[in-house]
Design a protein that fits this description.
homodimer; alpha+beta; Ubiquitin-like (UB roll); 2 domains; 9-stranded mixed β-sheet
Chain lengths: 403, 403
């Protein structure tokens, strides 16, 4: 597998663009993104489990019900959620795509991200669409920028891999920095590939993958109303189409996971106000489920996140979060270490503290990527969760987000 | 029912004191508290459900297993948790109480609060105990100060009420500002009363009460390892002893609830870094359980808490937190208003936004006590939860708590 350039345009058959159409006040910020394929694609999606669902999600569900789609349109600056006319607006966005590209509105995936509960007007979208469609090309970066809200960096990645002797490509863009605690799906992630795969197997690959990737990320414990992960597979790589389990399906899943895990790390590291990526690796759990529960609990603890911001090796907060996680754990067997580029520091063995140098601790925890290694010594269950520190800037960003 | 002075010393038969013995570095901070009764008391406790339990909790459970106790000793500055010798130290604290007061060590409730995972030495406790015991008197304030950690105010309250024609008194002290998300018990709360009541009925009253009081408070979503609520009932008021359900038991429960609810509000308002008390009142839920789930979810949302800090009427975050709460809610029926001393503001009706004046919103949300009123319009279930805003100071306090 090889990292390549091009993000969402790396796979054969895909073009993308992003423009500023006027939904966001700041004119330097792109706020409308379009991704199109030359051919109809097998399509798979997973969505937020929040009972409050953005109108675009309801419309997308209808459009991909047959397993196929050919374009993705997404705006930032407004979530089009909790609005009485939300579904009509989302359908209107798809109709505009049809008007300017010829792709049937019913083959368009639509998404929105931004403030909840503010009416979204079609006007800026209608006026921006011709520039957006006319400029379609190798512009994954513009597309990635068009879906950003408080993200500080655009998020894209692509890999090439081999299936059935044919070179395939898979790439993605993503956004998400706050209201992130996915439950069966997450933030906005658009993946494109030229591998040939049936809609059913594509959906299976995606549904399996999110359990260990996006569902293991938390920035602030708030599950968004507009989360969506969508994969489009054009089939243009020419491999023999994946119709069931087997070697090719495994290879495809591995490539998909490479892309999704990369985005998980990028999203956690760019968490609102974050200065540090926290990667919690749990091993030795009674079950995989228990390992995931423990990893998520540690990564979500406000107290632990604040301690990491302060580079304070307050491991008692790790133990505390393990204890209230709700998993079956024998606290007397728990070992904990912190690790970063600067070294590794053992802080707890068998549930009790180990003497350590505060100076070393500061050094290890002052890096911008910290691993929290937890051995439960009670089985073979393993899991990884990604999060970030809790900082002044998280409060600042969210104390006045609307205005 | 009448509010009276005296806190934990208001009830007949109780004396208290608090001193600085040297566990905390700051010499102006009391760090050791003792409450004693003239007579053996019916005793009831509830404890944290965290799998990591402070050593004092394990010792206290043994000491109150027979339903009786006569003293409470508590230190701040060190949680005596995750220490290999923790139980021996906690037993040592009880033995010191016996030595200086004559009350059997097995009748002593012991508690600790502070940093987890740092060895606690008996030395300062042994040297402070004679001053502490010699100074026992009407010193609820000293006792309340001796259990504070990052609390900014000491927390005490007392009421008088009538049982069986006799005047009774009930009072309490409490601490807790961070690591607060009680699960079956909470922070440290010590309640004393002179009502006569059997240990079994006292336990029933307390266990019922915490479900609607302390278990509905959240400061940061972290369930502490050392939470404990303890009630001692001396029986000195002379009422005929409560042995079962009935009018007197109901009156006692009402008085207990008055005290616990008062402390819930004090604890939430003094949440680490908090500038505002948030009181979320949910009505019209399909069940009481659903109402509680929704109220807790809103009060715990980091995004909503940050918006309240910024006096930003971002009601979409309330809807979002209702949506992911996990309760059976019909979002299309949800109404939301904000209320404070400055007025009431409707922001959402039937799941969609209502136009409102941003100026009025700022005025309503700039007060220091905010009610979030949620009508689910789908049944008769009701609940109240208490929380606080998320501020820069929460991050500051917890970024470097140990050092």
């Amino acid at each position: 597998m090889k990292k390549i350039k091009g993000g969402v345009c790396a796979a054969q058959g895909f073009k993308a663009n992003g423009v500023h159409c006027g939904i966001r006040k700041n004119k330097t910020k792109r706020d409308l993104t379009l991704i199109v394929s030359n051919v109809r694609c097998a399509a798979a999606c997973v969505y937020t489990q929040n009972l409050v669902k953005g109108a675009p999600i309801l419309v997308t569900k209808k459009h991909v019900a047959d397993g196929y789609a050919q374009a993705i349109v997404c705006n930032s600056g407004n979530a089009n959620t909790c609005n009485a006319d939300g579904e009509a607006i989302a359908e209107g966005m798809c109709a505009l795509v049809e008007k300017h590209t010829g792709i049937a509105a019913s083959d368009v995936v639509v998404a929105s991200t931004g403030v909840i509960g503010q009416p979204l007007s079609l006007e800026p979208i209608a006026s921006g669409m011709s520039e957006l469609a006319a400029g379609l090309g190798d512009h994954s970066d513009f597309a990635a920028q068009g879906i950003m809200t408080t993200d500080t960096v655009d998020k894209q990645i692509a890999y090439s891999f081999e299936l059935d002797g044919k070179e395939c490509r898979i790439g993605a863009i993503g956004k998400g920095v706050g209201m992130i605690n996915p439950n069966m799906a997450t933030m906005l992630i658009f993946v494109t590939t030229d591998a040939a795969i049936s809609p059913a197997m594509l959906q299976k690959a995606l549904s399996d993958d999110v359990k260990d990737s996006f569902n293991m990320v938390s920035v602030d414990g708030d599950t968004s109303t507009n989360d969506m992960v969508c994969v489009l597979a054009s089939g243009l790589a020419g491999n023999s189409r994946i119709e069931g389990a087997g070697k090719d399906f495994t290879a495809f899943k591995r490539a998909l996971n490479k892309v999704t895990t990369h985005l998980c790390r990028m999203i956690a590291k760019d968490g609102e106000g974050a200065t540090k990526l926290l990667e919690c690796k749990v091993s030795g759990a009674k079950s995989k489920r228990a390992a995931k529960t423990v990893a998520k609990s540690v990564i979500k603890s406000s107290l632990f996140k604040a301690a990491m911001f302060g580079a304070d090796a307050n491991w008692g907060r790790v133990l505390c979060a393990i204890g209230y996680a709700g998993a079956d754990v024998d606290i007397k067997k728990v070992d904990v270490s912190f690790r970063s580029r600067a070294g590794e520091l053992e802080v707890c063995r068998g549930g009790s503290g180990v003497a350590f140098s505060e100076e070393t601790a500061k050094k290890v925890l002052s890096e911008d990527e910290i691993e929290i290694l937890i051995s439960l010594n009670d089985g073979r269950g393993k899991a990884v969760a990604w999060g970030c520190d809790l900082t002044y800037d998280y409060v600042k960003i969210n104390g006045d987000y609307r205005t």
